[in-house]
Amino acid sequence: MSAIHILPLGGARADLSAALAAPLARTFGANVEERAWDVDLETFFNPERSQYNSTELLLHLKRHYAPLAPGGVRALALLPFDLFIPILTYVFGEAEVGGNVAVVSYCRLAPDRYGLPADDALLGERLLKEAVHELGHVSSLIHCAEQTCVMHASSYVEDIDLKGASFCRVCAAELGRRA
Amino acid sequence: MNKGDIGILVVDDELIVRESLSKWFREDGFRVEAAENAATALRKLQAGQWNLMLVDIKMPGMDGIELLQRVRQTNREVVVIIITAFATVDTAVKALKEGAFDYITKPIDPDYLDHMVEKALQQQLLLRENQKLKDTVSELAGPGEIVGESPEIRKVMDLVRTVAPTDTTVMIRGESGTGKELVARAIHVGSPRKYFPIVTVNCGAMTESLLESELFGHERGAFTGAQYRRKGKVELADGGTLFLDEIGNIDMKTQMDLLRVIETKQFTRVGGTEMIRSDFRVICATNKDLEAAVREGTFREDLYYRLNVFTIDLPPLRGRRGDIAKLAHFFLERFSRQMNKKVTGFSPDAMLALKAHDWPGNVRELENAIERAMVVAEGEVIDRAHLPLHTVAAPAKDGKRLEDIEQRHIEQVLRENGWNVSRSAAILDIDRVTLYHKIEKFGLKRTQ
What we know:
CATH topology of the largest domain in chain B: Rossmann fold
CATH class of the largest domain in chain B: Alpha Beta
Number of domains of chain A: 1
Number of helices of chain B: 18
Distance between the termini of chain A: 11 Å
Number of helices of chain A: 5
Strand order of the largest sheet of chain B: 2-1-3-4-5
CATH superfamily of chain A: Collagenase (Catalytic Domain)
Number of strands of chain A: 8
Largest sheet of chain B: 5 strands, parallel
Oligomer: heterodimer
CATH architecture of the largest domain in chain B: 3-Layer(aba) Sandwich
Radius of gyration of chain A: 15 Å
Radius of gyration of chain B: 31 Å
CATH architecture of chain A: 3-Layer(aba) Sandwich
CATH class of chain A: Alpha Beta
Order of helices and strands of chain A: EHEEEHEEEEHHH
Largest sheet of chain A: 5 strands, mixed
Number of strands of chain B: 16
């Protein structure tokens, strides 16, 4: 059975990390474990944008974590900080398509960020969808036109709320084929 | 279109931008390639099929604007979105003037980028579809309907080709049934106005007030029965062609109104005060001697000269007998298709009769004769007996009047159908009561 390592970084909330394990295990049929990984996140911090460069973090993960992990392990870094890729204003997460690493942030997923009452259940739901989405990319899936599919592209949290946490039939079949 | 079939070319000197954007669009399923400078981009553009280019404005060597200019010299189709670090009105305006679809500033809002790309690709798809439809319209509406190879009709076609691309007013003269409307349509579809409507006004079929309302439209309540505002033909022809058929039949007041609107391209609806502009080309047709009408004072001289800029005289069918066989076969094929009847040709006798006939009703009469023959023909060949041609056999002194032709035609149809009125009425495409009236009017009697 394949494995997924969740790496909470930068003081990411343990409860959110723990809540991801069971549904990810079900969705990907993998052993999901939380692992500690020591990394200096300040290297990826851009003071001009007050954001963390997700592409560089992803590369770092690829270079320094993946070789240490057993073959076939997919690593998902979980962060509380805002992420960006240089050309875009922000991203919820980033993944190596067809590779073995992904990063996801819950900074923009919390309802209280938008002046709404805090809602951990909703935050957890959104985070799960984004985690499944990025790990879907790791499994070579691309964005899906089906609005309820977890692989549907989301630029705003409202988009995330509209889609489900599972794959549509086409993406599920593609995932099965690639597995 | 499958996203994998859509090619996006990212042009930026910064590796990180190229990689980020490429990755972003690959995750969406697009086919993506990147170029680090304008020269590489031009090479890639020439070598492959691209739908969209994202071009950084600031690059060493040839910058984004110059690249855009070069692309536009050879490729009008690819959509170009300019990426700029600093949004200045100058660069934005310049990029748009050079044919960019839009511009975006770095860093890009991911939602904005997705929407812009989607919009750009949709617009490109619409433009392609539009071009396809235009090509189809050009093929369908071409002057292929004007049939003939005689020197007379070739001369007409030469004149059509000469005048069509211009905006010149054309007057088409010819006997009834010579195909004046067909020529007007050929001029219209050969003109840059072909994607706008050609609006026909049959001036001979209307009373003075009806024609005025038909031409200029009317406001609500302009007259009894005008319950709604209605656009007139002049307004509907905006961008296209106004075809005034039987122009010689319009009254003096409408002549004056028409002259004014042709000269100013402005008018008011009947009962209205708002001045409306319409950009149209005028083609008119007449079977009357307008010069004589001018001399007699029934047609305004100034309107005559305004309309008679370029004249095309259509020859009567008897003046181009060489085209009769070709026209006959053209109509035969058309009606075979329409009636789903397998009639393949004419007997030698039938063709001789067609060529010998005088055709006072011209091409329209020939068309009707073939249609009728197609209805009554039972085999694969149209025979002499199927053709309603009487004037050759017994040209009466006044036998060329339309009424005489009608009488002979009705008589022949009745005879061929054993005076079965229902069947004859069906063939003549009139109702039985009308046929009884005609029998009475012409004093037709069944003979043994």
